[in-house]
Amino acid sequence: MMWLKAISSIFSTLIVVMITLSLIVPLYLFFTQTYTNSSIQANSAYDNYLTNVNVKVSLIYLGNSVNETFVYNYGSVPITIEKVIINNISYNVKYEMLPDSLVPLSSIINNNIFIEGNSVIILQINGNYYYFNSGPD
């Protein structure tokens, strides 16, 4: 009867070892996939951050109309203007500007409107909003 107790403890040890070894592969695959997804998201977020840091846009006011207002991309990356908001009027556009380019605002919105003396002009560029005040500095 003593030898049955010895065999039963050996079998129970083998069963615990087999269960532990059988969990290694699923756990390894789970953590590898989680790490890969996290790395991809982190790299994408960092690339977006670098792009946003390199976006440098300015509005140059020479008068009271959009013909006399210019958008200047002095950054190192191309930008895409997706929306322009002037005097609470929204213009959905898709206008791409290369670095070091200067474009009249009227050619972006295809309209010539009057800009009041202290208006706020909002540009949505690459998914971010940029606010400009047309009044005196």
SSE topology:
Elements: H1 2-54, E1 57-61, E2 69-73, E3 79-86, E4 89-97, E5 101-104, H2 105-109, E6 120-125, E7 128-133
Antiparallel strand pairs: 1-2, 2-5, 3-4, 3-6, 6-7
InterPro entries: Flagellin/pilin_N_arc
Transmembrane segments: 6-31
Keywords: Membrane, Transmembrane, Transmembrane helix
| Helical content class | 40-55%
Strand tally is 7
Global mean pLDDT: 86
| CATH top level class name of the largest domain | Mainly Beta
Class per helix and strand makeup = alpha+beta
Instruction: List the secondary-structure elements in sequence, H or E.
Output: HEEEEEHEE
The second-level CATH architecture of the largest domain is Sandwich
Question: What's the CATH topology label of the largest domain?
Answer: Immunoglobulin-like
How many domains make up the coordinates? Answer: 2
Per the principal axes of the C-alpha atoms, what is the gross shape?
rod-shaped
Compute the CA-based radius of gyration.
31 Å
The helix count comes to 2
Q: Spans of 5+ residues with little confidence (pLDDT < 50)? A: none
- Largest beta-sheet details: 4 strands, antiparallel
Q: Which strand order does the major sheet show?
A: 4-3-6-7
Task: For the record, give the distance between the C-alpha atoms at the N and C termini, rounded to a whole number.
Answer: 98 Å
Strand content: 25-35%
InterPro entries: Flagellin/pilin_N_arc
Keywords: Membrane, Transmembrane, Transmembrane helix
Transmembrane segments: 6-31
